[in-house]
Structure formats: C-alpha cells, structure tokens
C-alpha cells in the first residue's frame, strides 16, 4: 500500500511549536479551562491550596520548609506538564492550520447577479446559492459545484497533490473547493457554503482543535477517571481522621501529594492531547474527519465495503491472453486484435495493443497513414472495430459477434465458444475478434487485483474485520475476483439500493460498517454507513453525506483510517492502564513515609528503601509529574499498532502497560530518590 | 499448615466446582421458565400464589419498574419484621418470655435482615422469641436471598437481551427463586443438619446441673467485687436446623445463637461444617454457570468463576498460613501441630474444626456475604484477621452473596472490559455490547458508594470519643480494625463481626443500619440502571477483533482490576489497622 504522497511529517519537538506550547501551557492554567478536565483540575486546586499555605508560612513564620516548597513547585509542574502536552498537540494542528490559512487569503469573486451582470466582491461576502465565474489563473472563491464548463484545477493547497485535476459540470466530478486555483478554461460555479463554513474553514477548526467536541468514548473515559478521582479523594480525606486516631496527623502538603499521586494524572493529563493528535494523524494522511466520533467509529468497524473497481482492482480490465480459434495462428489473432484496438482509447483497448506488442512483437501502427476507417463502439451493434485494406475486423462480446457472424452466414465455432465460457467462468471478460465473417479467437480481459491486497485483507481478517467487495459484475466474475483478492464476501450486480440494504442488514446485526464513495448515488449509503469516506474528487452530495473526506481520493485509505481509529483507542486504553498500575508503587513510597515517624515498624513497607520519608514523598510527586512529559511522544504518536487478533494484542499491551506500569515506577521513584538525595534537595 | 488441612481445603473447592454446573444449569432453567423436574409439584403452587396476589406472570418490567417493585417489597418486609420484634412478647412461641425488642435495636435488626446482612447487635437466645426468629428473621433469610437472585438474573438478562426495554418480572423471579431453589434445598439440607445433631424444637431452654460448680467474680453497680457460685447452665433450644439451612444457603449468616456456627447446636461436627461451607458458596458459584448459559457463553461464566476461585485461594492461603504460624509472642506455648495439638493460633477457634477449617470458614463466609462464623475473627492473628476484612472490601464478589455477588462481579467485569478493552483498539464491548458513558457512570456510582460508606463512617466514628471509641474493647490499630471491620461488614452486607466492638448502642445501631441499607439498595439502583441500559443495546457479533472474555487472560485481567481497585482504595486504612498491628506484634507490642 503506497503511503499517501503528502504526509505533513514534522519532528516531534519542532522548536517553534514547542515554544508556543510552553506559553500556552501557562495560559491554560485558567480555572475555566482546567474545569474541563476534572483530574487536572483537582491537581490545580491542590497546588493552589499548598501555595496559599506556603504564603501563610512565610508571613507568619518568616520561613517555609524546603520540602513544602518543592512539593508545591512540583504540583504546579504536574499541571503545567499536562497543559504542555495539550498545547503541543494543538500546536502541531495549528501549524497545519496556518498552512491552510495561507490558501484562504482573501480573493475577489466575480459574482453573477440576478440580471446576469458580473459584480466583483470579496469572497468572504459570498453566500450559499451565489453564482460566480472563475477563469484561468484565478482562485476559486468558495466551495461550490460547477454548473457550467470544464476546467483543470490545482488543488495542491488542500491535497498537496501537485498534478492538476479535471473538474466539470454534471456527473461526479463537479465539486470544487475554495482556495484552489483554476489553471485553464472558465467555469461557472454555484457556491454551496456560507462564509466561515467552507471546507477549508472546517479543516482549520478541526486541526486546531478549536471546535473539538469530546468524543463518546472520551466522555466515558472521563467519567471513569472522575470516578476514580473521587474514590481517591475519599481515601485521602478519610485518612486524616484515621491518622489522627493513630496519633500521627499529616500535613496538608503530604495529603495533597498523596492525592495527586493517586488520581490518574498521567492519562488525565494526556487525554485531550491523545484525541487531538489522533485527528492530526488523520490529517497527515490527508483525511478529514467531520467529527472525532467518526474516528472512533473507524476503530470499531466490523465490516468494510470496498468497491471492486479502483479499490481492489485497477480501475479497468486488461488483456492478458489471446486464445486463437482452430486453424488460426496466435500471431494472426494478435495482429487483428491490435489493429481493431488502435483507435480504441479505452484502457481495455490500450491494454490489447500493449499485450500484442509485448507478447508478439507487433509494433503499434499509425492509423493516419493506413487510410483506415475506425468503427466505434455503439450501443446497437455492441461492437467496435476497423475497416482497413479490405479487412473488416470486429471485436465484441461473444453474443454480439455471434449475431454479427450469423447475419453474414457465419457461425461461432464451438471451440471458440468453449474458450469464451472458460474465461467467463474464471471471472474474466472474453472479447471475440472476428475478421471477414470468421471468428479468429478470443481476447482474455481480466480485472487485475492490486498488489498486496490479499495480505491487506488477511490482516483485516486478523483484526476481526470482514471485507465485502461491491461490484456491478455478474456473480461469476465477482466470485472469481473475490477469490483472487481474498475478500471475505462480495455483492455482485450491485445497485445503489443493494448497497444500502447490505449496510442496513449488517447494522441490524450490530455491526459497524465503513465504506467509500464518490458519486451522488453513493450519498445515501455514505450517510447510512457508520464511517463514510467520500473521495475529494466526488460530488458535493457525496462529501456532505459522508463523515470523512479523503483528499487523495484513494479508496484503499479506508484501511489506514481504521488503523488510526484503533490506534487512538489503544493509546487511551494503554495510558489508562498504565496510570492506574502506577499507583501501586506510589503507595509503597508514600504510605510508609507518612507514618514512619510514629510507627518506625512501617519501614518494612518501604520496599524501595527510599532515604527519608520526605525524599520518598517528593520522589513520588516528581515521578508523577515527569512521567507526563515522558509520555507526551507516545500520546502524540500513538502506541504502535500492528494488525493482530484481540487476544494477542491485549496480552502484549497488558504486559507492556499493565505489568510495566506496576514495575516502572518502582525503578523511577528509586532513581529520583537517589538523585535528589545526592543533590541534597532534601 | 498440614497436608490434611490443605486436603480439606482442596476437597471443599472441588465439591464447589462439581456442584456449580448442575445447579447453575438448573437455575437457568428455573429463571428462563423452562421445564424442571420439580414442576409437577411446584407449578400449581406458583400459579396459586400469582392468582392470590394478582401477579401477572407474563408482564415484563423495565428496570425502573423492577427496581421499584423490589424496593417496595423490601420496605414492606422490613416494616413487618420491625413490627414483629416490637410486639413479640404478646405473640405465641415465646417460651422464655423475652420482652419486646427496643426500638433502635429492632430497627437495626430489621434493616440488617432486609439487606441480607444479618449483622446482629443482639444476643439472639436472650432477645428473640421463636416466633420472631422463624416468622421474622427466617422469612428474611428466604426473601432477601431471593431478591438478590432475582436482581442477578435481571442483570444477566440485561447482558443477554438484545434491543429490549425490559428485564423480566421481579415477582416471578423472586417467587421462583424461593420455590424452586431455596426451599427445596433448605428442606434437604435442614434434615442433613439434624442428622448431625443440630436441634429442631420449640421447647423452653434446658437447665443442666454442672458437674463442678464454678465461682464467678463480677462487679456490682458500686464497683465492689461480688463472688457468685454457679451450679447450673442454661442450654438454649429452638427450631435451629430449619433456620441454619437457609442462613447458609441464602448467605444470610444471622446465627440462631450468639456464637453462630461455632455453637455445637448450630454446627456440631466437621461434616456439618463442610455442608455449611458448601451451602454458602453453592448458589453463588452456580449463578456464574447460570450467567454463562443465559448469555450463551458458558466459557465466560467459567472465566468469571475462575477469577473468583483465584481470589478465594489467595484469601484462604493467607488466612491458613497466618493462623497456622501462630502468635510469635506466645513463648513456651506449643504451637506446633502434633497428635494432641491443632497447632497455630487456636484462640477463638473450636477444637473440632481446628486451624484449617476455621481459616477456610472465615474465608468462605467473608468471600460470600454470609457472615456466619465458626471462630472469632477478632482473635485471628492480625494478618489472618485482615483476610476476612479484605475479602469484604473487595466488594463481596468472590462468589459473594447469593445474587449480589454475581451482579457486583459483573459491574467489575464491565469496568475491567472498559479499562483494558480500549487496548484492543475498539470501543470496549462486553459480550457484543458497547460500554458507553452511561454504563460507566452507573458502574462508577456503584463502585463509589462502597468506599464512601466504609471509609466515611469509619473516619467519622474514630473522631467521636464518646459515641464511637467508647465501644472499643481494644486500643491502637486493633481498635481501628474493629471499627473498620464493623462498617466494612455492614456496607458489604456481610454481617460477620470483629468481636470486641460493642455495637448495641444507639450510635452504632443507627449508623450501621444506614450503612447496611445503603450498602444494599443504593448500590442496586445503579446496577439495575446498567442492566436496563445494556438490555436496550444491540449485540455485535464476536470476531477476532473483539475483546476476549472467555480466556485465562481475561480471568487474570479481571482479578487484577479487582485487586488493584480494592487495594488502592483501602490500603491506607489497612496499613494503619491490621498491617501495622502485625508489624507491631512482631516488634513485641500488642493491643
């Protein structure tokens, strides 16, 4: 699978983004912002409380303990690090948005008013329904649909693809995007979006995270984290009375430290960064999701509907073989076939010429010098061909040729018929070539499955995703290609309604369905599917119906979209597990330290042999803060994902993030304890 | 620890494994209203009951209706028990002429038995008449157990049903639980207990002449020492066997006598002891199989069973090890196992049960929310005594109370699936159902109530010298354990007591009553909400990409989540209680 051409890769710690993120992380300290994240809000409140206590100590005692001061500082760092993670993710998005914004520079539009007179006005004043004229060299002022004309358009501003694309009125190639440039010709466009709602606007809002809505799974996870926070708040608040009963009351600094270490700050601090980064990854693959919900749904997909043509196979059939009739040499057949196809500009026709040249050494001939008469394909004869030098060559489907031969008293030989059936059975398309009332043989046209598809589908199967190939072919042909490509199922002779019914049927079984589409007749199915990826080359209707748009218009990208969705969910799960598992070590650091003064026997629980109670507590707090920074790259990049079945995936991740999450902090806290003891910070 | 001890523990668990499957499948038949071998006998009774009470057996209930029916039923039952206690002296079957039960104690007891807790602030044989025991307490032993089973079945239906709004009919589920499961087994079990020597009569108490009269020194109200000579002993009687059976089977645990299953009339022989322990686990173990069958995933049922089994063995191993090790401060006392000596810490244990069966019983009774005891948990070593406490703190889900254990465990299953399920790269799914914000919210509410009750009330109580601390028999960490255990036991609806705490005061009777009722009903509401919400969902078919809930990996994950969530919540309190006491004991200090 080819990587999309324009992945906006940039290094993780881009200096400009990092600088801006540092400033933003301070700005984000505002309580109104923090309240959106219950876990980190609790940390901020804790930091405020300890800060106030520090101030009080200075005022009334003239001095505050170094321990209290350091604890307070590190509590603030914990909040800042979490803000920094979010700011980094947003910054990466913003960088992308800035690039887009340049494309959005104000342009003048030639609006056609009611009287048919061209009036110039700024593009930002255009409303949906306005009609504008755009000529070569001009920027298209807004999203719209071509209602007249054809033009080549440079869409590199949004797709990164430098080759121009053809846009024309009517059909499935009529949509244009604001900010792209017309390179040739003149088109008349009906604007379809209001200012601020254009595609580029949406894209900018999306990558900046400005309009980021929490996704369903993120909301659920937030509830879990808030619940855990309340439980730990309860455990810490009730600990003080119990400590008083045990004659060893604790300072607020220590209690806040314990609380902050226990509540899931790691995942709480990185959660929104993970979400933003997930969207960002999608944009890097040149896919725009209209909502985070769609990205999550992509991870959940059970069934992929893939169009055969263009997705599983190359868009067109290719000649692979010539089967000569009895008494006809292969060279003769190849020669006739090539002649008949010289003027045939269809991909099939070209492939016949190429096959004849490559296999039989027949060079292409120049039609103009041959005084040949080309007979184009017509719906009535259902054949095409050539009349040259007294030779009448025709090629077409077996039935058409049979009828053509019969009319002039010939018949189609049984051997030829057998070849025709053989090819049809194998999923190919037979074309019979006839010359002067005699069938010369059959050309085997075949759908060519793209390389690597079989492996791709095997991976999907391992992930538990079923692939269904959609094709207009007859069931026989469809079955053969399905077998060759390795898809799980196929829908043959598919009409738009069949596709819709299939989606509904799958959904009724509780499955989530993903599909791609570009035509207007795909729109209902795109809307019905849980993940509907519209091709950017498609119609406006298709783009509006789907919940994602692929700027590269590469239908195979659906598979990558699924992987990005899964990676997003896995990253959340991994860090949640890690965060909770971390608490075990923190307890062993803090609890014995809290009560060691009153009950020296509790040193038995100090299994890390941390130097002093104060260094133990401080080490845990420092670890808790630093781990957020350490995990920012993971949050932004996402955990590694290789397609495999859920059981193996779960086992690997549980070992890494669950068991690792238990063990790692023991080492980390011990190391920090050694470091701060060596530095005499305590 | 002895081979014989381990053998008995292993034998016990093997028998549970053998009982679970047939009983579980039978219960699935009962609750799905399929044919069973008892139908010819019971179906007419069932129909008659519905006709008399006007229950429409085929009417399905939404979760809210189901919950309201359950709450109303429990409330009325609780009031009836309260009334019986308050007027028992004027009612028949009161040969000892016990007076009416004081109001606050009666309330505590009514709450306790309604909540399937059977915490007893009173001494039964000097407080309750036979009628109160039979018609008041034993009635609740049946109904509170049936309510638990009905709720568990409702939860299972929530998981297994597809796009439906209802969870079944509460009245039908509870009725069938009693008629088809609790009553028949109790009858057979009671007879078996009688064969072992458990008494069953309505006679006044016996008086026996002591072979050797005893001098007892007491203090009178003025504080002077008074020496009395005691030559006779009162031997309490009663309809014990019938009540003992359902006390165990319904994981109620409220003893007919004060010393509960340590009393020779309640639990006379090692064999009756084995039967009683089997009865405690039987239904809860069977329900995991029922769940597997009703959700069409028997292996999932066994995976849950296995998680319970692992936690059970962890508990019993610790308790047995701690008790068999004995007390390091008892110098010069033989604590080695020998032909004449059970070995280990025998304080508060019955010689006919010994260390292994006492440790096993303590584990079983606290794993399940039974609360019957055959030895005094207060007299266990600090770590041995911590096992029952931790068992309850984990949420009474290691088999747990009948029904309550399963639905509590299923809430943990949902949380485990949610936490770790994301790691397979899908929105977490449990048996094909997506776990979404509403489910997580309700599950977290369920999980939150429990520590709130335990830690909240413990914290308040240890700050109250007169109301709270004056009831303590011990100081220091052991005193803390006593308070902690009381509220843990009440919140977990266990009902066993860390003796040493005088709970028969207005403060404890009221607070514990609140905790018991909240620990039961406040947790049931969010649980039913989850069930109702799950029932409405679609079921996505399983594939290679779905989160596995039938494998050993799932069992390990579930066990891990339970232990970590429980440990993280209660570790600080436990540190200052039993753990500190243990460390101090080895440093030579006791309380």
How is the secondary structure organized here?
The complex is a heterodimer of chains A (682) and B (591).
Chain A: H1 15-27, H2 31-34, H3 38-61, H4 66-103, E1 108-112, E2 118-122, E3 131-135, E4 144-148, E5 150-154, H5 156-159, E6 165-168, E7 175-176, E8 181-182, E9 186-191, H6 199-208, H7 216-245, H8 252-262, H9 265-284, E10 287-289, H10 292-300, E11 303-307, E12 313-324, H11 330-341, H12 347-360, H13 367-370, E13 373-375, E14 383-388, E15 391-396, H14 398-407, H15 414-425, E16 429-435, E17 438-449, H16 453-462, E18 466-470, H17 475-485, E19 489-491, H18 496-508, E20 513-517, H19 523-528, E21 531-535, H20 540-545, E22 548-550, H21 557-595, H22 613-630, H23 632-637, H24 646-678
Parallel strand pairs in A: 11-18, 11-20, 18-19, 20-21, 21-22
Antiparallel strand pairs in A: 1-2, 1-3, 3-9, 4-7, 4-9, 5-6, 5-8, 10-22, 12-17, 13-14, 14-15, 15-16, 16-17
Chain B: H1 3-31, H2 39-53, H3 63-87, H4 103-114, H5 130-160, H6 170-196, E1 206-219, E2 225-235, H7 240-249, H8 270-294, H9 298-325, H10 354-367, H11 382-393, H12 404-421, E3 429-430, E4 433-434, H13 437-462, H14 476-491, H15 506-535, H16 552-586
Antiparallel strand pairs in B: 1-2, 3-4
């Amino acid at each position: 699978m080819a990587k999309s051409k324009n992945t906006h890769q940039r290094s993780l710690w881009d200096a400009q983004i990092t600088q801006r993120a540092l400033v933003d992380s301070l700005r984000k300290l505002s309580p109104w912002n923090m309240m959106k994240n219950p876990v980190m809000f609790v940390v901020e409140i804790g930091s405020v409380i300890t800060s106030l206590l520090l101030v009080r100590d200075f005022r009334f005692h003239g001095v505050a303990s170094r321990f209290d001061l350091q604890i307070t500082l590190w509590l603030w760092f914990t909040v800042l690090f979490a803000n920094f993670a979010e700011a980094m993710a947003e910054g990466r998005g913003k960088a992308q948005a800035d690039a887009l914004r340049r494309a959005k520079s104000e342009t003048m539009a030639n609006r056609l008013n009611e009287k048919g007179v061209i009036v110039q006005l700024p593009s930002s004043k255009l409303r949906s329904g306005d009609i504008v004229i755009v000529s070569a060299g001009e920027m298209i002022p807004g999203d719209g649909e071509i209602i007249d004309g054809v033009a080549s358009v440079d869409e590199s501003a949004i797709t990164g693809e430098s080759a121009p694309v053809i846009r024309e009125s009517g059909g499935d190639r009529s949509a244009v995007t604001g900010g792209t440039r017309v390179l040739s010709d003149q088109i008349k466009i009906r604007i379809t979006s209001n200012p601020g709602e254009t595609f580029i606007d949406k894209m900018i809002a999306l990558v900046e995270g400005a309009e980021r809505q929490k996704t369903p799974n993120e909301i659920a996870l937030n509830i879990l984290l808030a619940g855990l926070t309340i439980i730990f708040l309860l455990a810490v608040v009730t600990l003080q009375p119990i400590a008083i009963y045990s004659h060893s009351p604790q300072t607020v600094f220590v209690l806040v430290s314990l609380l902050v270490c226990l509540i899931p700050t790691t995942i709480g601090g990185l959660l929104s960064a993970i979400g933003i980064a997930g969207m960002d990854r999608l944009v890097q693959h040149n896919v725009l999701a209209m909502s985070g919900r769609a990205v999550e749904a992509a991870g959940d997909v059970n069934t992929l509907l893939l169009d055969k043509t263009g997705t599983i196979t190359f868009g067109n059939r290719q000649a692979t073989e010539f089967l000569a009739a009895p008494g006809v040499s292969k060279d003769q057949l190849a020669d006739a076939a090539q002649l008949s196809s010289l003027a045939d500009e269809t991909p099939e026709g070209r492939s016949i010429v190429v096959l004849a040249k490559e296999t039989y050494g027949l060079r292409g001939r120049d039609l103009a010098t041959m005084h040949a008469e080309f007979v184009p394909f017509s719906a009535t004869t259902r054949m095409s061909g050539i009349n040259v030098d007294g030779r009448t060559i025709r090629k077409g489907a077996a039935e058409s040729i049979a009828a053509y031969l019969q009319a002039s008293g010939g018949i189609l030989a049984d051997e030829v018929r057998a070849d025709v059936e053989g090819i049809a059975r194998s999923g190919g398309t037979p074309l019979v070539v006839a010359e002067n009332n005699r069938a010369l043989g059959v050309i085997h046209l075949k759908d060519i499955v793209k390389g690597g598809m079989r492996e791709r589908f095997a991976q999907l199967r391992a992930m538990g995703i079923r692939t269904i190939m959609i094709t207009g072919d007859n069931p026989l042909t469809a079955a053969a290609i399905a077998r060759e490509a390795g898809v799980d199922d196929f829908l043959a002779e598919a009409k738009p309604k069949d596709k819709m019914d299939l989606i509904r049927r799958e959904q009724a079984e509780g499955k989530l369905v993903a599909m791609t589409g570009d035509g207007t007749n795909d729109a209902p199915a795109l809307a019905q599917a849980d993940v509907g990826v519209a091709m950017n080359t498609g119609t406006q209707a298709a783009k509006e119906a789907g919940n994602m748009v692929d700027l590269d218009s590469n239908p195979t990208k659906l598979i990558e979209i699924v992987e990005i969705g899964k990676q997003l969910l896995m990253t959340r799960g991994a860090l949640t597990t890690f965060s909770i598992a971390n608490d075990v070590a923190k307890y062993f650091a803090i609890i014995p330290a809290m009560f060691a003064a009153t009950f020296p026997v509790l040193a038995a629980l100090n299994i890390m042999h941390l130097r002093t109670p104060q260094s133990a507590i401080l080490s845990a707090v420092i670890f808790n803060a630093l781990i957020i920074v350490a995990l920012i790259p993971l949050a932004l990049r996402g955990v590694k994902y290789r397609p495999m079945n859920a059981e193996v995936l779960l086992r690997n991740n549980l070992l890494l993030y669950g068991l690792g999450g238990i063990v790692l902090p023991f080492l980390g806290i011990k190391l920090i304890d050694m470091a701060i003891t060596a530095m005499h910070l305590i | 620890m002895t081979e014989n001890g381990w053998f008995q523990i292993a034998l016990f668990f093997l028998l549970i494994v053998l009982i679970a499957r047939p009983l579980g499948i039978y219960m699935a038949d009962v609750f799905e209203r399929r044919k069973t071998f008892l139908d010819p006998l019971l179906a007419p009774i069932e129909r008659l009951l519905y006709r008399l009470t006007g229950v429409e057996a085929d009417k399905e209930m939404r979760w809210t209706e189901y919950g309201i029916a359950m709450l109303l039923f429990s409330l009325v039952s609780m009031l009836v028990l309260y009334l019986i206690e308050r007027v028992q002296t004027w009612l028949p079957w009161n040969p000892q002429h016990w007076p009416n039960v004081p109001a606050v104690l009666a309330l505590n007891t009514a709450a306790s038995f309604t909540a399937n807790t059977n915490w007893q602030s009173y001494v039964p044989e000097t407080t309750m008449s036979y009628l109160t025991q039979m018609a008041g307490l034993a009635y609740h032993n049946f109904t509170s157990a049936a309510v638990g089973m009905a709720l568990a079945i409702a939860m299972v239906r929530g998981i297994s049903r597809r796009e439906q709004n209802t969870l079944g009919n509460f009245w039908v589920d509870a009725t069938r639980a009693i008629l088809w499961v609790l009553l028949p087994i109790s009858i057979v079990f009671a007879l078996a207990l009688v064969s072992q020597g458990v008494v069953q009569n309505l006679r006044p108490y016996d008086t026996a002449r002591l072979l050797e009269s005893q001098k007892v020194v007491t203090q009178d109200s003025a504080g002077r020492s008074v020496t009395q000579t005691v030559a006779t002993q009162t031997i309490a009687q009663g309809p014990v066997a019938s009540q003992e059976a359902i006390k165990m089977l319904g994981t109620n645990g409220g003893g007919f006598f004060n010393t509960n299953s340590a009393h020779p009339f309640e639990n006379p022989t090692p064999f009756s002891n084995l039967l009683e322990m089997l009865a405690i686990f039987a239904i809860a173990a069977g329900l995991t199989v029922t769940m597997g069958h009703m959700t069409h995933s028997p292996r999932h049922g066994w995976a849950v069973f296995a998680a319970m089994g692992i936690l059970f063995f962890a508990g019993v191993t610790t308790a047995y090890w701690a008790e068999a090790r004995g007390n390091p401060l008892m110098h010069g006392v033989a604590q080695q196992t020998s032909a004449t000596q059970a070995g280990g810490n025998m304080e508060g244990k019955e010689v006919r049960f010994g260390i292994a069966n006492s440790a096993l019983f303590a584990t079983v009774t606290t794993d399940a929310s039974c609360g019957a005891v055959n030895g005094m948990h207060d007299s266990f070593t600090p770590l041995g005594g911590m096992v029952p406490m931790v068992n309850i703190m984990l949420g009474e889900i290691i088999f747990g109370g009948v029904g309550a254990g399963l639905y509590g465990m299923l809430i943990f299953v949902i949380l485990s699936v949610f936490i770790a399920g994301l790691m397979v790269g899908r929105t977490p799914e449990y048996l094909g159902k997506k776990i979404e914000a509403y489910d997580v919210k309700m599950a977290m509410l369920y999980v939150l109530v429990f520590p709130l009750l335990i830690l909240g009330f413990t914290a308040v109580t240890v700050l109250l010298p007169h109301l709270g601390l004056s009831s303590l028999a011990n100081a220091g960490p052991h005193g803390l354990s006593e308070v902690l255990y009381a509220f843990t036991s009440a919140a977990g609806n266990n009902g066993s007591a860390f003796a040493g705490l005088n709970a028969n005061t207005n403060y404890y009777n009221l607070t514990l009553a609140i905790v018991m009722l909240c620990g039961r009903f406040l947790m049931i509401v969010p649980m039913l909400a989850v069930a109702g919400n799950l029932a409405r969902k679609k079921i996505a078919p399983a594939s290679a990409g779905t989160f596995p809930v039938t494998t050993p990996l799932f069992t390990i994950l579930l066990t891990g989540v339970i232990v970590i969530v429980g440990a993280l919540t209660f570790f600080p309190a436990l540190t200052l209680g039993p753990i500190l006491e243990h460390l101090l004991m080895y440093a030579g200090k006791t309380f």
